[in-house]
Amino acid sequence: MATSPCSSSGVSSSSSSGLGADAGLEIRTRSVEQTLVPLVSQITTLINHKDKPKRSDKTLQAIQRVGQAVNLAVGRFVTVGEAIANENHELKKEMSVACIEARRAGETIAQLTDVASLDHPESDSHITIFTDKTGVVKAARLLLSSVTKVLVLADRIVIKQIITSRNKVLATMEQLEKVSSFQEFVQIFSQFGNEMVEFAHLTGDRQNDLKDEKKKARMAASRAVLEKCTMMLLTASKTCLRHPDCESARINKDGVFHRMRLALEQVIEIVTDSRPTGENEMAPISIYSGIKEFKNKVEGLRENLYFLSKENLSTMLEVILEHTEDFTDSAYTSHEHREHILELSKQAKMELEQLVSVWMQAQNQKTKDLMEDLEVAILKTCQCMNELKREVHSAATSLAADLLKYHTDHMVLKALKITGVEGNLEAVAEYTCKLSEQKEQLAEMCRLLRHVSGTEPLEITCIHAEDTFQVTGPQIISAAETLALHPSSKIAKENLEVFCEAWESQLSDMSMLLREINDVFEGRRGEKRVYLSLPRPGKHNANLKALKPVKLDTEEQAKIAKLGLELHLLTSDMDSETEKWEDQENEIVQHGQGMSSMAYSMYLFTRGEGLLKTTQDLFHQAEIFATEGTKLASALHAFSDQVHNDDKPLLLLEAEKLISMCKQLQITAKASVQGKSATFTKVDACILKTRNVMTLLCQLLPLCCKLLRKNKAGNGCLKPAPPWREDKIRTGTNAHTPERRAETFGIKSLENHVTNMTFLESK
């Protein structure tokens, strides 16, 4: 299905000053949002300045400086926007109009704030911010709207790149489906591998840029499917080429291609924010989210007795209790859990009846006794719902723990491999029945876990896990049947191994998911996000055996456990420090939180858990961690220009330390090693250097927070940022390579021309 780029970002919010950009634009990515933050801050400062009878020269100079800074920044911003328009003819007209509007608005703001040289800024002979506040507001609105449009259009280019990359992957997949010789397959698969790497990079960046956590989780799920299916596609296709008349081999291959196409389509749906006609994006409500909403409504009666009807509340409870039937009707729920859930469901109905009775009386007569009775009824109803929530959580998680423990030996998979090699079709049929039973158990486990997952991203992960078991089970069966029919076939044996590894990997992921669900329930790390990214191997070969991942064995994990624990403690310290900042959108905080998430995923690796499965994944994560650290150091340099001169040397010294440590980590992560011992030494070095960086950050963040508060308390404003550097504008003709073009024409280049604006706080 051909998909066209659509608007992916914009502005839909307004400030207290009455500012608001185009209501039809919605910001969906962090890069666009962060680019707009300094501009909004500057303009809000101008709009919200306090009108005083006497204005000091310092105040007038500050206002003029802000106005000039806005105009200069907009001028440079527009220059980049116009260069983007020239490179992308289909957007040229829209981009040009938005650039003209932005330039005009910037010039208007500069004129209205040109007050420093006037003896009487409010004089009728010269229109200024003091005499025409409405004009400033209009110009500010136009500026925000036009700048946002430019950013949205630039973002469309990123979307177009992803769609183009997807189309290339699809076209090559069609060729792979039709090949009839090994030689042709090897050539095309080599191209396919390179295209998949490009698609992984583009979608990985997009995933981390998305604001919506549900979309981010869906993107992660789709990319995980594509990652695993790439190896499946290789072995399934080779098996089909070796055994062209084998029906089970064809079914196996077709299943992989179908799943990859669905995953590619879902990525594009997320990126373009579109869904097939008639398809409902909303998944059925979970018990957790239903209970949360129900309790909010019940507790709201304390403030307002008339804001909802009793029918509304009764319906909400009915929906929750209907969902508990997923537990009580399940063959895998224990008798004890089933009885407790039924008892609590009955009690919940009784508590609601009592609540409604007191509530109706309180509406007619608000006496002290009735209000006390209402409070008791609210507390009892909420307590009952909490007990129901605890019971379904216990039922789901205990079932999951038992199943994962029971299936940890992978006996059915081992038996399928043995009987397949023996060519024992009867035994293979017997074990495929057992695998089908196991699949149904695990799918049911995922459905029940979704009800108690606690967050929408975890709900999506549960849905993805269920789908993985449902799809991978039949694929293992078709691969096993193929091997049984051709027991001497090495490629058929390898193919079955690949699908079995995918099943084992999903079981391992379920163990981590179960821990995360328990963490959310117990209030631990509920908001902690592990950084997700596909590995980035250097060169892709048609024979992917050369890239076979390396995992740490038990002994190596034990050696590195202490380092991992130290890393874990540092991420907790880091999270505590970032929570102390009033401005959670601060660039320093954002980079710090990102690095903490990455360090946490590296800690999970030391335990043999998490999304970093191999040493290659870890090294790639370490590279990205170091890059993020360099960005944080740049943010510290920018921040140092705004603090007092006495504090600046210490901050710069720490920033230089950070840069040096990140460079060392990057060198270590990129170093080429061979052999098990050398690989483990590299793993140890990467985690050690990551720990050292985190130790420094845990000292740096409190320092920055202290300096920020000191500056605010001192004089109500930060020092202005330095002038724009001309070397940041590189829109010239030397931007020919894809890497340079990506850097020059897009959101990132536009960010460079807004984010250094002066932050002047309202006096």
From TrEMBL:
InterPro entries: Alpha-catenin/vinculin-like_sf, Alpha_catenin, CTNNAL1, Vinculin/catenin. SUPFAM superfamilies: alpha-catenin/vinculin-like (SSF47220). Signal peptide: none annotated. Residues 7-18 have a biased composition (Low complexity). Its main location: cytoplasm. Residues 1-20 are annotated as: Disordered. One of its GO terms (biological process) is Rho protein signal transduction. It is found in: Cytoplasm. Keywords: Cytoplasm. Belongs to the vinculin/alpha-catenin family. This is Alpha-catulin. It comes from Eudyptes chrysocome. The gene is CTNNAL1.
